[in-house]
Design goal:
By secondary structure, this protein is of the alpha+beta class. The protein has helices at residues 8-19, 23-52, 110-121, 125-138, 162-165, 186-197, 199-208, and strands spanning 56-57, 76-81, 89-95, 98-105, 142-144, 170-176. The mean pLDDT is 95.
């Protein structure tokens, strides 16, 4: 199936879901979700797969077991490509707000955090990451991720690249509001170009952080 854009009906579907996040709404409009959200997303991912790899499409249902918010459905549809045994991913998401892409690491285990901080403190690898993060920010990317308020244990408050040292995860994201380009193959070009722009960040994370040796968390 060729990707021809995300139909406006998909965005309208999510506008309705935001207003009525119920099983009744979902059941009544599931055919719209299948045809105008899931199908074009799968088509987009299929065209990107030869360059970036196979994606995991997230379930549309929320895990409400430990949440005060008991609404059953996510108000966006996301997918991620996470190379086996590597640290660094590509992400894409559709919602009523438009299209969002991101890349990097959303969650690092303790062994990965330790390796990440050693690399940030390194006189060669640290400046490489700092330069890449600065470049992405200047290009319009939002630099995100969990971070400590205090100086991490084992490091001096005067250490270089302290903002990066405080981070426990690191990813970059950017969004496009609904526009005509979203409804055409331009959306495919936008995602492809954006993911290519994240390649250097993901390579740095793969080379310097790598996979965790911890048991995967549920």
């Amino acid at each position: 199936m060729s990707f021809d854009g995300f139909p406006d009906d998909g965005l309208v579907f999510y506008e309705g879901l935001e207003a009525d996040n119920s099983k009744t709404y979902w059941t009544r409009h599931k055919a719209v979700y299948d045809a105008h959200v899931k199908a074009p997303l799968l088509a987009l991912l299929e065209e990107l797969a030869p360059e970036f790899g196979t994606a995991k499409v997230f379930r549309p249902y929320r895990d409400v077991r430990f949440s005060n918010d008991k609404t059953p459905y996510k108000t966006h549809q996301g997918a991620v490509i996470h190379p086996e045994g590597a640290c660094g991913s590509w992400y894409v998401q559709l919602s009523a707000d438009g299209l969002r892409v991101a890349g990097g690491c959303w969650r690092l285990e303790s062994d990965q955090v330790a390796r990440y901080r050693r690399a940030v403190a390194d006189d060669v690898q640290g400046p490489r990451l700092e330069k890449e993060v600065t470049r992405l920010a200047a290009a319009g990317w939002s630099i995100e991720g969990d971070r400590l308020i205090r100086v991490p244990a084992g490091y001096d408050a005067t250490a270089p690249r302290m903002d990066l040292l405080k981070r426990k995860s690191l990813h970059a994201a950017r969004s496009w509001a609904p526009a005509e380009s979203l409804h055409s193959r331009q959306a495919l070009d936008d995602v492809r170009t954006a993911w290519r722009d994240l390649r250097a960040l993901n390579v740095w994370l793969a080379d310097n952080v790598g996979a965790t040796s911890k048991e995967p968390r549920r």
